[in-house]
């Protein structure tokens, strides 16, 4: 009885091995499907990684291009500011010079000195020499010494006072061509109580 039961059991197992039951077949198919879908998943992940890499690379490129543009913009802006600063410094110098000029005068002839808002050290037709302006005026009518002085003072100046040999040479250079027995210029020297004095008050030192 017992052995018959064993035989029965064996035959059952044998049959099981040779002809797989429909359940086991389904299991195997499921396993293959699982394998396949795992590979698909791997492939998808791989693809996703490559896609992500491409996207990141592209984004980095875009960022780099933007950064380069920013650097270029900042560099341009910096150059513009340096240029502007230079201009401002020049303007500042010019204004400072103008202020210095204005402070020299009690009544500045602004119309003559600053045409178009740009102040010059000397009025039109005057000559600059060692920070002073000179006008060599030889137009008619001829004037007396006193008339000449009035003429000068009307122009916020005075007859020339010669302080040193350089100035004397300069004045001499510019008066030569209009100097003979009938022509000449007045200077700011006058004979007061037996001594020659300059119009600015100091005594004649040039002899
Ligand atoms: C750079 O300047 C250009 C033109 O001035 C402007 O259109 C652009 O937006 C600027 N780029 C950056 C990144 O600031
Ligand atoms: C302005 O001019 C004065 C002389 O007129 C000079 O001493 C001074 O340094 C100048 N200042 C500037 C900022 O240029
Ligand atoms: C005067 O004229 C001479 C000759 O032209 C020149 O060498 C000299 O530098 C001039 N002097 C002045 C102070 O202008």
Automatic annotation (TrEMBL):
Keyword Membrane found: yes
Name under which the protein is recorded: C-type lectin domain-containing protein
Pfam family, one: Lectin_C
Keywords tagged on the record: Coiled coil, Disulfide bond, Lectin, Membrane, Transmembrane, Transmembrane helix
Domain C-type lectin: 129-207
Top-level taxon of origin: Eukaryota
PROSITE patterns: C_TYPE_LECTIN_2
InterPro entries, sorted: C-type_lectin-like, C-type_lectin-like/link_sf, C-type_Lectin_Receptor_IMM, CTDL_fold
SMART domains: CLECT (SM00034)
Coiled-coil residue windows: 64-98
Chain intervals with Basic and acidic residues compositional bias: 15-24
Stretches that traverse the bilayer: 30-56
Stretches for region Disordered: 1-24
GO molecular function: carbohydrate binding
